[in-house]
Design goal:
With 446 residues, the protein is an alpha/beta fold. It has one domain: TIM Barrel. Helix content is 32%, strand content 17%. The protein contains 15 helices and 18 strands. Strand 1 (41-49) and strand 2 form a beta hairpin.
Length: 446
């Protein structure tokens, strides 16, 4: 299956692996809270990131909170041995943490690579409930969930979830061969996805959506400029190759905001982006142009100056989710996709739009994707670190005091062997992990 055909399906590979496990490095479960959890710590000989540079100073943690004021009692002194201290990393677009069989492995992978915060941009609510005791705890990964995406009949999402529910592997070939059977199956509806064909559907199903207690709302837009044309061709289009009616986006946003929830939009091209932007969404779950074939016009995926300005004005977050070079079958496609990515990222940077990082890659954290983005040359190492350590956690958990190494913020941080401002690959060289006042003991990768 080519990236062009497969990329939309990767949004739901978490569901694929919940039924058909892949081989994952076996590691130990997250370390439980030990007798040191309630103690006060002094961290000496560390170089702490202040958002601009690394500065040598001493910090303390007490009650899981950082302070530069020495507490009355220091129970333990930890020598950071000249290490470089940064806030933990975050993944603003993942599809993990909703399958009991491998949630411990996923949590260990994230903690080992320094990723303490994650947003599940499309998950099964029933699966997330089964692992609720494994996440959002001091020794685990903190996860915000969407609990099912909003789509339409024959729309993106149901093709994968229902293929899995039928005990099949959701490749393009399998889905096409079983299209009628899959389209008729509704086993995972109102759990992993919600079908909203009309405004009446939205009003009727909204209480059910809120009943799931999502942390944010996720909706799907796929080539909105072709929506009416694709709608007329149903059922003769590929299953899953249509999204929510663009005209419903403002209505979804209005209801979500009234409920105190933000809205994240799957977007594929610039038309989707503009529909989401004008509709009032809060988060772009993708940057347009993460993949498009050679027979499509790159301009359909390019943002304009106006788009970037409006994104910044509305304070909308954008999450680039690049494909790594090995995902492409030919160099020409990769080159065109990278040109569009540089253009779009450059415009967003120019206008100081809010950017957060996420991988949208099942079975891995964003680390290699950040290194790839670094190689595009759009951002400096300082900008990359600020976005990943400071801004991305703030997107996922806006009400928490995380992402800064300052008085009153959660005592969560990483100690790196080298300076990532000089060599960004140092983000892989983690010496120590500390989360909410608790040292984490994470097994090395096997």
């Amino acid at each position: 299956m080519t990236p062009a055909a497969n990329k939309p399906l990767t949004l739901f590979l978490a569901l694929l692996l919940s039924l058909f496990p892949l081989t994952v490095n076996a590691v130990s479960s997250p370390a439980p809270a030990d007798e040191r959890a309630g103690k006060s710590f002094a961290f000496i000989n560390g170089q702490w990131f202040d958002g601009r540079a690394f500065r040598r100073r001493t910090f303390y943690s007490t009650g899981g909170v950082l302070t530069d004021q020495r507490p009355r009692t220091v129970d333990e002194v930890i020598d950071l041995k000249n290490g470089y201290v940064v806030p933990p990393f975050a993944d603003a677009h993942c599809h993990h943490f909703d399958a009991p069989y491998n949630v411990n492995q996923q949590a260990e992978m994230y903690l080992r690579e320094g990723v303490f915060y994650a947003a599940a941009q499309g998950n099964s609510r029933s699966g997330a409930l089964k692992v609720a005791d494994k996440v959002n705890k001091p020794a685990g990964v903190d996860v915000a969930y969407s609990h099912g995406g909003l789509t339409r009949t024959f729309g993106h999402g149901l093709e994968v979830f229902e293929t899995l529910a039928l005990g099949l592997i959701p490749t393009t070939e399998v889905i096409e061969a079983n299209k009628e059977r899959i389209a008729a199956s509704r086993r995972r509806e109102n759990d992993a996805y919600y079908i909203l064909d009309t405004a009446e559907d939205l009003s009727r199903k909204w209480p059910k959506i809120l009943e799931g207690r999502p942390d944010f709302i996720k909706l799907y837009l796929l080539h909105s400029d072709e929506f009416d044309e694709r709608l007329r061709k149903i059922p003769n289009i590929k299953l899953g190759h249509i999204g929510l009616d663009p005209r419903l986006v403002p209505l979804v946003v209005q209801k979500a905001h009234a409920a105190g929830l933000r809205v994240s939009a799957h977007v594929e091209n610039a038309a989707d982006y503009r529909v989401a932007l004008s509709g009032g969404v809060d988060i772009m779950a993708h940057l347009p142009g993460y993949y498009f074939p050679l027979d499509e016009d790159p301009n359909d995926y390019r943002l304009s100056e106006k788009d970037a300005k409006e994104t910044a004005r509305r304070k909308v977050w954008v999450i680039p989710t690049p494909n790594l070079p090995q995902s492409f079958n030919d160099a020409a496609t990769l080159r065109r996709v990278e040109e569009v990515a540089k253009h779009n990222l450059g415009l967003l940077k120019k206008h100081r739009a809010r950017i957060a990082f996420g991988a949208d890659a099942y079975g891995s954290t964003p680390v290699e994707y950040l290194l790839y983005i670094a190689g595009l040359g759009v951002f400096t190492n300082l900008e990359l670190l600020n976005i990943w350590c400071e801004d991305t956690p703030r997107l996922i958990f806006p009400s928490r005091r995380i992402g800064r190494l300052k008085n009153g913020f959660e005592a969560s941080f990483l100690v790196l062997d080298g300076n990532p401002l000089e060599d960004f690959r140092q983000v892989k060289n983690i010496r120590l992990r500390f989360k909410q006042g608790l040292p984490l003991n994470v097994a090395a990768k096997k």
